[in-house]
């Protein structure tokens, strides 16, 4: 029986075209679109999830990566408990900006106890990769990310598990101990 | 419509609110709220005759979706409220006129009134605020609306600071509240 309701605000951060919207679409609608349409501002999606006795209401914020949103983006982070820091494994510039831009923004403007997972997206393009798994793992350790996962929004690899882990880590940061971890 | 959803809202209110979402959250943010409210067909409402009225139930669906998606986003809601005032009353109205008119274009069981006016202080009583009737939702949007509505009628060297009793969002009557607006010089 579900007896506890929890609201969580989560954000996906990363450079334009790393696949943030595609990850959310894959998670919430189980679909994938080949054509790229940049997010204008912020796209917010709700999703309910049941974890043990908790009914978790997720508000997932897909935040535009373009620099023109730098000013308003800061307000989007308010109350944010968890984030996926997403880079594209085929473009090393997107990897480089995880620490210098996205993590810094998250730390400056989200909740002080907010947690984050490092995501290397587009693992289906492994043959064109510019960022190896080892580099991803090393950065995750360096920035003290809760986890490092490679995903493919196109194929759906690891997508469901990624969001579930993010929720579990976020609940953990509220001192909610889960039996299944 | 019956019970809590009896009433109607003038189209220009919806247009101003959507424009405020658009300014702060951009197009996809505005669309997210309308989609969650199942009101996506209203996205081009500004092209319609603004003297029409929308039923209160539909308006409440938008507000509920907004409060659901913007959970824990006080700053954003406050900024949206300021923009809402900017677009709803762009020019030519003083604060008293704005307070009077907002009651007449959102027609339902609610009331906004000035209960005290001093040289540098205005006290507002908001009864059954339509923007924060859900439990757990603070009324940052309407506070932003009132702050900006007063601020824009003052000389530019003044700003408005709001304060009042601490809101208990778990109280089902929290949507009736007193807001104090203090006018002070910026420099």
Short description:
The complex is a heterodimer of chains A (181) and B (187). Chain A is of the alpha/beta class.
Describe this structure in words.
The complex is a heterodimer of chains A (181) and B (187). Chain A is an alpha/beta fold. Chain A has one domain: P-loop containing nucleotide triphosphate hydrolases (Rossmann fold). Chain A contains 5 helices and 6 strands; from the N terminus they run βαββαβαβαβα. Chain A has helices at residues 20-29, 70-76, 92-109, 133-142, 159-173, and strands at residues 4-13, 42-51, 54-63, 82-88, 115-121, 147-151. A 6-stranded mixed β-sheet of chain A has the order 2-3-1-4-5-6, with helices on both faces. In chain A, α4 (133-142) links the parallel β5 and β6. The two termini of chain A are 19 Å apart. In chain A, 45% of the residues are buried. The termini of chain B are far apart. Chain B has a single domain (3-185), classed as Alpha-Beta Complex (H-NOX domain). In chain B, α1 (11-36) crosses α2, α1 packs antiparallel against α3 (74-88) and α3 (74-88) crosses α5 (140-151). Chain B has helices at residues 11-36, 56-69, 74-88, 95-105, 140-151; strands at 8-10, 53-55, 106-107, 111-117, 121-127, 158-163, 177-185. The longest helix of chain B has 26 residues, at 11-36. In chain B, the strands form 2 sheets. Chain B has a 4-stranded antiparallel β-sheet, covered by helices on one side. Chain B is globular, with a radius of gyration of 16 Å. Classes of the chains: A alpha/beta (181), B alpha+beta (187). The interface between A and B is medium-sized, with 19 and 20 residues.
Secondary structure elements and their pairing?
The complex is a heterodimer of chains A (181) and B (187).
Chain A: E1 4-13, H1 20-29, E2 42-51, E3 54-63, H2 70-76, E4 82-88, H3 92-109, E5 115-121, H4 133-142, E6 147-151, H5 159-173
Parallel strand pairs in A: 1-3, 1-4, 4-5, 5-6
Antiparallel strand pairs in A: 2-3
Chain B: E1 8-10, H1 11-36, E2 53-55, H2 56-69, H3 74-88, H4 95-105, E3 106-107, E4 111-117, E5 121-127, H5 140-151, E6 158-163, E7 177-185
Antiparallel strand pairs in B: 1-2, 1-3, 4-5, 5-7, 6-7
């Amino acid at each position: 029986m579900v007896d506890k309701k929890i609201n969580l605000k989560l954000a996906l951060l990363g450079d334009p075209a790393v696949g943030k919207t595609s990850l959310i679409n894959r998670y919430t609608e189980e679909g994938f679109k080949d054509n790229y349409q940049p997010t204008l501002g912020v796209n917010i999606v709700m999703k309910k999830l049941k974890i043990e006795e908790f009914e978790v209401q997720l508000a997932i914020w897909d935040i535009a990566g373009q620099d023109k949103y730098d000013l308003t983006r800061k307000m989007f982070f308010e109350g944010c408990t968890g984030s996926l820091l997403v880079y594209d494994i085929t473009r090393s510039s997107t990897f480089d900006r995880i620490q210098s831009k996205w993590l810094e923004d998250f730390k400056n403007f989200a909740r002080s106890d907010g947690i984050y997972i490092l995501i290397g997206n587009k693992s289906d393009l492994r043959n064109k990769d510019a960022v190896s798994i080892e580099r991803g793992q090393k950065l995750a350790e360096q920035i003290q990310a809760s986890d490092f996962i490679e995903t493919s929004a196109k194929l759906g690899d690891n997508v469901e598990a990624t969001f579930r882990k993010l929720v579990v880590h976020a609940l953990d940061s509220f001192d909610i101990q889960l039996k299944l971890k | 419509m019956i019970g809590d959803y009896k009433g109607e809202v003038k189209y220009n209110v919806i247009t101003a609110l959507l424009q405020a979402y658009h300014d702060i959250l951009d197009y996809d943010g505005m669309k997210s709220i309308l989609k969650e409210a199942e009101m996506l067909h209203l996205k081009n409402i500004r092209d319609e005759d603004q003297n029409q009225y929308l039923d209160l139930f539909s308006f409440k669906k938008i507000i509920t979706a907004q409060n659901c998606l913007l959970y824990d986003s006080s700053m954003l809601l406050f900024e949206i409220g300021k923009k809402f005032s900017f677009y709803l009353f762009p020019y030519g109205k003083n604060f008293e006129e704005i307070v009077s008119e907002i009651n007449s274009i959102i027609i339902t069981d609610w009331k906004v009134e000035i209960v005290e006016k001093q040289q540098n202080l205005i006290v507002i009583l908001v009864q059954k605020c339509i923007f924060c009737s859900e439990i757990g939702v603070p009324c940052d949007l309407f506070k932003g609306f009132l702050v900006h509505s007063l601020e824009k009628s003052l000389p530019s060297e003044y700003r408005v600071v709001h304060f009042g009793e601490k809101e208990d969002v778990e109280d089902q009557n929290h949507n009736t509240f007193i807001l104090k607006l203090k006018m002070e010089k910026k420099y």
